[in-house]
TrEMBL record:
One protein family per Pfam: BPD_transp_1
Domain ABC transmembrane type-1: 13-202
Record-stated family: Belongs to the binding-protein-dependent transport system permease family.
Protein name per UniProt: Ectoine/hydroxyectoine ABC transporter permease subunit EhuC
Entry's transmembrane regions: 12-37, 49-70, 76-97, 183-201
Any Gene Ontology CC annotation: ATP-binding cassette (ABC) transporter complex
InterPro entries to which the protein is assigned, alphabetical: AA_ABC_transptr_permease_3TM (IPR010065), ArtM/GltK/GlnP/TcyL/YhdX-like (IPR043429), Ectoine_EhuC (IPR014342), MetI-like (IPR000515), MetI-like_sf (IPR035906)
Organism: Streptomyces haneummycinicus
SUPFAM superfamilies attached to this UniProt entry: MetI-like (SSF161098)
Length: 237
């Protein structure tokens, strides 16, 4: 490809990264707000949070992008630019998935920790901030890492709005050169490199957070340990 075509690809990468960062920030905020609300003591708060989660998990991200970009403007009399429409649709959709990660991690904290906070007369917010979240957040990182990679792949959906992301730029170059195999191979490699870097960053964050609470990141052993045998009769210990 010529340098001019590579500039189009690099512009697409930049747009994709912008969308990824903005939508992931929104999805993270939604995940924690809704996920914590799912554990609230008031049933109405749990119901509303659960209703949001089920609605956005049960709808297509592609249709949600269409809805935000084409349905909202006539209804409210304003127009969202493609970047913000994509950010809103992807952030709300993937935030619903992330809320289940937060809820599950909070529920996995040892109940004795909650009871200890109650014994110390901590308020619910103090128990959440000082006891539950510091222990739950490190356990959220691996599933959040997977969700972030899924969000990266989901950014390609915004190309339907004519947004010049990586997928849209690759399609433009394919039409210009009439070469599908080469162009889409480059695009796949770029997506893979970005996803690989994201997983490395998240793994480093996981190790740092677990070290902060006195834990080590779980790593699968290369070889299964052999059972030890005693010197008498070969009994397994």
């Amino acid at each position: 490809m010529t340098s001019g075509l590579w500039e189009i690809v690099l512009h697409g990468v930049w747009v994709t990264l912008q969308l990824l960062v903005l939508s992931s920030l929104l999805a993270t905020a939604v995940s924690f707000v809704v996920g914590v609300a799912r554990t609230h003591r008031l049933w109405i708060v749990r119901f509303l949070a659960g209703f949001y989660t089920e609605v956005f998990r049960g709808t297509s991200a592609l249709v949600m992008i269409f809805w935000v970009f084409f349905v909202l403007p006539p209804a409210f009399g304003w127009q969202l630019v493609p970047l913000w429409a994509g950010t809103l649709a992807l952030g709300l959709t993937y935030g619903a998935y992330g809320s289940e990660i937060v809820r599950g991690a909070l529920a996995a904290v040892d109940p004795a920790q909650r009871e200890g906070g109650i014994a110390l007369s901590f308020t619910p917010w103090q128990r959440m901030r000082l006891i539950l979240l510091p222990q739950a957040v490190p356990e959220m990182i691996p599933p959040f890492s997977n969700l972030l990679v899924e969000l990266l792949k989901g950014t390609a959906l915004v190309s339907i709005m004519g947004m010049g992301d990586l997928a849209f730029s690759g399609n433009l170059i394919r039409l210009a050169l009439q070469e599908s195999a080469e162009i889409y191979t480059y695009i796949l490699i770029i997506y893979f490199v970005i996803a690989f870097l994201l997983t490395r960053i998240m793994r480093g964050l996981e190790k740092k957070l677990k070290a902060g609470v006195g834990k080590a990141a779980v790593r699968e052993p290369d070889v299964a340990p052999k059972p030890e045998t005693s010197s008498v009769g070969g009994a397994v210990r």
